[in-house]
Amino acid sequence: MRAPSRGFTLIEVLIALAITAFVAAVAYRSLSAAMLGVERTRATADRTYEINRAWMIISRDLNQFVARPIRDEFGQEEPALTGGPAARYALSFTRLGWHNPNDQPRSYLQRVNYRLEDGALWRDTYAVLDRAPDTQPQEVKLLDGVEYLELLFLPTIAQAQATGDSLELETGNWPDSWAVEPGLPGSELAPPVALEITLQLDDWGEMRRLYALPPL
């Protein structure tokens, strides 16, 4: 005679379900941790790219600086370079190298403004150097998460001082504004020979870059 088949008891089923749930929970946590690590790595890579791209654009613009004053939309002459709290923009200057692949009837010079607004660093450019009242800039957001932007300017090489015995420049005595004195619009202002830019980022902290402007 065939022995009757024997099924699982309720306790055995519950134990099997508990083991399955435990294994699933461990697997989910491992998968979740792996996915979170991938997302963090991707976010870090994206942020690194954004920061490096912003500095690359700033460096490219300053390396192509040219001492060409312009007239703003109010008809007032602006120096070739201005910046700091006393100026209209955090940094504004004229640069060379504006590519013209379509050979349009325009200059190869370009006016560039950098400004901080709503925690973001913006770059403004104009299609013309000497602006009309209705001239509008092209605005591009370069970098988010910027807490503050500070600049220091070196007027002449003779005022450059090294820090102690090192070759590092002492910038503490450099002026933080490079602008025409109030009440003297249209006055000539020679560009500085160098400037230091400091960005305070909400995630990366303070970043500084020192730039020597091309000789006149």
Would you kindly provide a written description of the structure presented here, covering whatever features stand out?
By secondary structure, this protein is of the alpha+beta class. It has a single domain, classed as GSPII I/J protein-like (Pili subunits), CATH 3.10.610.10. It contains 1 helix and 10 strands; from the N terminus they run αββββββββββ. The radius of gyration is 29 Å and the shape is elongated. The protein starts with 9 loop residues before the first helix and ends with a strand. The model has no long low-confidence stretch (mean pLDDT 86).
Short description:
25% of the residues lie in helices and 27% in strands. The chain is α+β, with helices and mostly antiparallel strands and 216 residues long. A hairpin with a 5-residue loop joins strand 1 (70-71) and strand 2.
Overall shape: elongated
Total number of helices: 1
In the CATH hierarchy, the third-tier topology is known as Pili subunits
* Percent strand: 25-35%
Which regions contain 5 or more consecutive residues with pLDDT less than 50? none
Number of strands: 10
Structural class, from helix and strand content?
A: alpha+beta
Cα distance, first to last residue? 110 Å
Taking all Cα atoms into account, the compactness measure Rg is 29 Å
Question: Judging by the overall fold, what is the CATH architecture?
Answer: Roll
Looking at this structure, what is the CATH superfamily?
Answer: GSPII I/J protein-like
Instruction: Provide the residue-averaged pLDDT.
Output: 86
String of helices and strands = HEEEEEEEEEE
Profile the largest sheet.
5 strands, antiparallel
